[in-house]
Amino acid sequence: MLSRGRRIYKVQKELLGYNHRKSVVLSAENVSPRTPPDGAGPASPNKHVVVVGAGVIGLTTALLLSELPGYSVIVMAKHMPGDIDIEYASPMAGACFMPFSAPGTDNASWDGSSWYQFKNLALNHPEAGVSFQEAEVRLREEDLNHLPHKCAEYSLLMSSSYAPPCTKIPPGIVQTTTFKTLVINPSVYLAWLVARCIERGVVFQRKKFEHIIEVKLSLPHDSVFAIVNCTGLGAASLGGVDDLNVIPTLQQFVVVSNEASKLIFTSGSSKTGDEMCSVMNRPAGGGTILAGPWHLSHWYPQVDPNAAIRIMEQALELDPSLNVDGKGIGGLNIMSHEIGITASRPLGTRVQMETLFDTWLIHNYGHGAAGFQNSFGAASACVNFINNNRDIDPLTQV
Ligand SMILES: Cc1cc2nc3c(=O)[nH]c(=O)nc-3n(C[C@H](O)[C@H](O)[C@H](O)COP(=O)(O)OP(=O)(O)OC[C@H]3O[C@@H](n4cnc5c(N)ncnc54)[C@H](O)[C@@H]3O)c2cc1C
């Protein structure tokens, strides 16, 4: 028995032909913004755009689109800010900027443009829950080639201050780098994005879709000009997308009220070998995050008590200032044990456009552990694409 969405999709496919597999990757190069002619606003009525997903990616895309004239933007999602659910990555994030993206890639370019936006928020909008924090990255020799070792170049890209490696290198570590980074309190920031969207007329509707074609039919009286698919993990099971390259990636962390001296990331330690660990203070009362390693293909949403103990021991080794009066783990004021799962995509983040019959379908998902630092850049790529194709009928693109 086919679901409603799949039945409608089958009928439309027969009537119009199956055409939505033509796709173009939206890289930084092919989506430069189009400047409207002087003083000219859009002559045609508003175009309806549905953004599916209310994580940091969907909300940022909706916000940027709402800043352009001529669009009515609706965010439809199963989860909204304020919800906590294992399938909803954004509220669980650290979140900070870290040099994960290889220089020269789209992800690095998105990080770069996002940095300027978040830096502006840290400097001018304290209510957004973003602030600067000193950061130190410590790497073992075996991790130099596949972990964030480009801190110097990265901090240049981010116009951040960069300090050469410190002289006191912990045992087993061959490289340490310090620089200034940005940290984000996800609950405060997501709420801030919703408020800015509502101010600009974006409408929010709670909805779960079984198939992408249902989104096209979601506005009873109006046609949908474009759909932006920001479903994160949902892209794996959403009919018509069914992206089997989306892989759940899990991180366990402990939230404490003790304050860390700065953000510290290590690729491993003498105590726990391979396991990476990090500590960071979330701004605006978000607590201090003690985080363990990432586990690819992990879909088991249970806190592991042994892992929690290892994380706390590593964190104390990483930042001795957390070791209150030498009490070890006993001196940590534990607020909660948590896990978060994000959508990784080994083939690369999917920022790509297709046509879905007479509607543009733009994908923006699979940001792995970098959704916040990618958010503005990737959302701009999608929004520029929509605006550059404002007068083009998707049916002519088959
Ligand atoms: C523990 C942890 C730490 C992290 N730390 C960092 C960090 O330090 N820095 C950083 O940049 N990033 C970090 N990340 C990654 C970042 O959180 C994610 O990349 C980002 O949140 C992904 O956002 P998203 O909007 O794509 O997905 P999500 O936040 O998962 O949102 C998906 C949205 O789509 C909706 N949806 C899905 N399917 C459907 C459907 N069928 N119908 C309707 N709605 C649907 C959901 O309801 C939800 O609203 C971290 C992630 C985790 C888990």
TrEMBL record:
Single GO molecular-function term? D-amino-acid oxidase activity
Cofactor field? FAD
Q: Which GO terms describe its biological process?
A: D-amino acid catabolic process
* Any single Gene Ontology cellular-component annotation: cytoplasm
InterPro entries from the UniProt entry: D-amino_acid_oxidase_CS, DAO, FAD-dep_OxRdtase
Keyword terms, alphabetized: FAD, Flavoprotein, Oxidoreductase
Q: Which residues form the FAD dependent oxidoreductase domain?
A: 48-380
Q: Which domain of life is it from?
A: Eukaryota
Checking Pfam families in the record gives: DAO
The entry marks the following residues as binding FAD, namely 231
| Similarity annotation | Belongs to the DAMOX/DASOX family.
Q: What is this protein called?
A: D-amino-acid oxidase
Taxonomy, top ranks, is: Eukaryota, Fungi, Dikarya, Ascomycota, Pezizomycotina
